[in-house]
């Protein structure tokens, strides 16, 4: 299996030359869950000035840029993914002045800054939806959303049998102007998140303006929330099994027209901008979103959803890279995010509890139960090195550089994820990956805030602080810093070629003079002498024996000092 990123071509004096890859093709971007990174004003909620104050931590980590989860005005029914105004920054995070300070400070350090775009739905507090509720059926205001009459003689049944991704019906009925039961509106997620009607020209033009406004302000790109979901199947047909996956909500052909339009906007600027899609589809389907003239990047989440198993990892990587020869864009890899349980917990889970969910992704990525922490850290760091060795870009989630596990023991009354609320407590949701970060053990809230945190931090966070790990050369933080430094020396134009290890539980691949080896099984692996000298290992290499649950990087020739 080989992969070589497509390089843009320019013509100079009639000659065609190949340029270096754009920054987004091989960048490492750090995902910031703004509410949980650092709080500058003591209200217990992270903010943009808190991020600015800790930019040196990110710069020293070695990342190339930052992606901010939504920090627009929002009632925060779904962690900011219920946006009430797309054109400014919420005052709780410092407003536009704090954003400008962060943007300048990031750019001064050579860091790119990406925002989150939420185009499938908005908040029920958005001005447009308030107008829609006050307007009549069939009005221009309601046409911006997906309103429909109910079924049955009195319209008391939902327009179809779709279920929300967060649990419960995907439709909510509103009152007519006389107070009687009225139409229903579609919400693929929470009731507070009405879906836009992307066949409405005002919706299309509004998001054109959103992109241009933030590009004009100087950001470097957008991560696009549920990028495959904006367009719904024509006629909104019933499902044969309403409890099964709903293909009518996702991956409709019309989404590609939206991305072609947005790509033209991004390409109209005189600097490199990226558009990154969140697309939870198979590797084959994902590649369609980075065809020529569409998105520049798309998440390849298939790897994130695999167990720590050599065959599963190899198949996922091979399938992900196989379709890239026919597209223009670049893959983005991740093993952690604000939507899944942290990798340390997933890979260290030794006694999983039953999980009940209509969301197939949740079944693969949010299991709970007893965790072997040492095993989880070993496997998570091994998987991280493997991922960082792949061609394409990488997205790290805040706290993974500290080896943070999932917080599974949040008090029920503290949970805020609408998944927990809409499932009536049968699915715990995503709060455990969003607990505020620990910076220093001897300070209130572990240095995150001078006040009480919006989600409670467990006492054991004292063992995972930035302060503690900075002084430990054997810490997870030290490993990530070394890995990102070494990764910069990998020629991203090199292909990926699998190497024969003679063992089903050991994967190895080569990219130029660089070789990654990952041992998934129980026995150590003797690294062949002709595979080069050690550049970095996630656990100590002894007599060229790579231990189980370990990745090692090797070079055929010593790197220049």
**Tally of separate domains:** 2
CATH class of the largest domain: Alpha Beta
CATH architecture of the largest domain: Alpha-Beta Barrel
Percentage of residues in strands: 15-25%
Describe how the helices and strands are arranged.
Layout: E1 9-12, E2 15-18, E3 28-32, H1 48-53, H2 55-61, E4 65-68, H3 95-108, E5 112-117, H4 127-134, H5 140-143, E6 147-148, E7 171-175, E8 181-186, H6 201-217, E9 221-224, H7 255-267, E10 274-277, H8 283-286, E11 297-299, H9 310-322, E12 330-333, H10 343-348, E13 349-352, H11 360-365, E14 369-371, H12 373-388, E15 393-397, H13 418-422, H14 466-470, H15 476-487, E16 497-498, E17 506-511, E18 514-519, E19 525-526, E20 533-537, E21 545-546, E22 550-555
Parallel strand pairs: 3-4, 3-15, 4-5, 5-9, 9-10, 10-11, 11-12, 12-15
Antiparallel strand pairs: 1-2, 6-8, 7-8, 13-14, 16-17, 17-18, 18-22, 19-21, 20-22
Helix pairs in contact: 6-7, 12-15
Please give a structural write-up.
By secondary structure, the protein is α/β, with parallel strands linked by helices. The protein folds into two domains: 9-123 and 197-482, Alpha-Beta Barrel (TIM Barrel), CATH 3.20.20; 496-555, Immunoglobulin-like, CATH 2.60.40. Helices cover 24% and strands 16% of the residues. The chain contains 15 helices and 22 strands. The chain has helices at residues 48-53, 55-61, 95-108, 127-134, 140-143, 201-217, 255-267, 283-286, 310-322, 343-348, 360-365, 373-388, 418-422, 466-470, 476-487, and strands at residues 9-12, 15-18, 28-32, 65-68, 112-117, 147-148, 171-175, 181-186, 221-224, 274-277, 297-299, 330-333, 349-352, 369-371, 393-397, 497-498, 506-511, 514-519, 525-526, 533-537, 545-546, 550-555. The protein has an eight-stranded parallel β-barrel. Strand 7 and strand 8 (181-186) form a beta hairpin. It starts with 8 loop residues before the first strand and ends in a 6-residue tail after the last strand. The model is unreliable at 1-20 (pLDDT under 50).
